[in-house]
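Sanity check

After download, print the first record. It should look like this:
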Amino acid sequence: MTDLSKQRVVDPVLTALAQGYYNGNMISEVLFPIAETQKEGGKIPTFGRLAFRLQTTKRELRAASNRLTPEDIGSLTVVLEENDIEYPIDIREVNETEGVYPLRQYATGVTQDVIALGREKACADLALNEANYETTNKVTLSGTSQFTDPNSDPIGVIKTGIRAIKRTTGRKPNVCAISGDVWEVLSEHPKVLEKIKYVSTAVLTPEDFARLVKIDKVIVGEAVYEESGELKDIWSKSVVLAYVAPPSKEKKQNIYEPSYGYTVRRKNGLYVDTYTEVGGKLELVRTTDIHKPYIVGKAAGYLIKGCI
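Expected structure tokens:
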């Protein structure tokens, strides 16, 4: 029997392409940025309210040193999951194109999209689950408070969420994730359109809305998935506010930095390899991503459900 493991080769160029790939329809990496760990299992920190707040450091003459409260930082056992998908390239397809490498690049993009969509769904399931929020940090709208009612106050509702996070953590949320169906309603809401005159003269954009509610970044979730032959929205009828730790100067996330959530990935856990089958007539381009998303600071999030 042929040992296929000897024929599998990790492709550094395609791996770099996969690591730098980003699908504009996906928003999960903004709410759950990638943070690397050395192993596939172990413990990562979770953060309570005090972990986000500035601590008193001033010491009076002859006074005792200021002491942190480590009890407010807990731990979460993580078990990462391997996700992989491969794309077949027939040698005959190569003969009909300019070369094999463009096909490999295309195959990498396709496999990355598949894995990214699964990651998006997993993150949305966490973010839209009411059980993952403190009682003070969630609300379900109904009746005249829903954004479909022209007399509702969507900006007020969102600002209430912003204040709730600031009261519980001492930090203002810096991300507002809006599902695509809610964005359609918000962008035509009469009270929002009245306000937009002061920040823009054109059609409402996420950047305009960010200025309206005074938050750093507004993102719109438009990704869909197929279930029972039907396409369904991954993000729906909801708004999520969150404080997300900014990346370091090296543009990497530190899992020990208090944040709403992370997508925990094993170091070098995202890679692309290739191998052959059918006597060398079929080449498989395979993307592997060993990761799993987690909410690690529920006090830093606020969920608004039933927006429409």
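If your output differs, re-run the checksum step. Summary of this record's structure: The chain is about 30% helix and 30% strand.
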